[in-house]
Amino acid sequence: MAERQQSHLRERMTIRGDVDAASFVPWIRRHAAKLGLSQAVSHAEPDRIELEIAGPADLIDMMEMGCLLGPIDVWVETIDRIPIDRGSD
Q1: Which of 15, 16, 81, 88: CA 20 to 30 A from 68?
Q2: CB-facing half-sphere around the CA of 60: CA atoms within 13 A
Q3: What pLDDT, in 10s, does the model give residues 39-78?
Q4: Could you please report the per-residue DSSP string of 8-46?
């Protein structure tokens, strides 16, 4: 059975809205860990969180969707994603 080679990405994700960093940053870390993504928060304010995230493209897409939908105490208005580099593992 052939295994599908999945490309790994590194992206800068900027999350904007009412994103109280005190509760959302720990949530982001837990969610990324569940998806097997590496992440590093570089900036956190009540209206913006910036992080670098790395892993398979499909899982980064899932991370974006998770941030848009959850947790209940934040309101995400937009998420901008900028590729940092592309490679494959």
Answers
A1: 88
A2: 23
A3: 999 999 999 999 999 999 999 999 999 999 988 889 999 9
A4: EEEEEEEEEEE--HHHHHHHHHHHHHHHT-EEEEEEEET
In terms of average pLDDT, the best of 5-19, 45-59, 72-86 is 45-59
Reduced to 3 states (helix: H, G, I; strand: E, B; else coil), residue 87 is strand
CA dihedral 69, 16, 43, 22 (to 10 degrees): -50
Q: Which residues of 39-66 are buried (b: 16+ CB within 10 A; e: fewer)?
A: bebeebeeeebbbebbbbeebbebbbeb
Contact assessment for residue 53 and residue 37, using Cβ atoms and an 8 Å cutoff: yes
Tokens found for residue 83: 């590729």
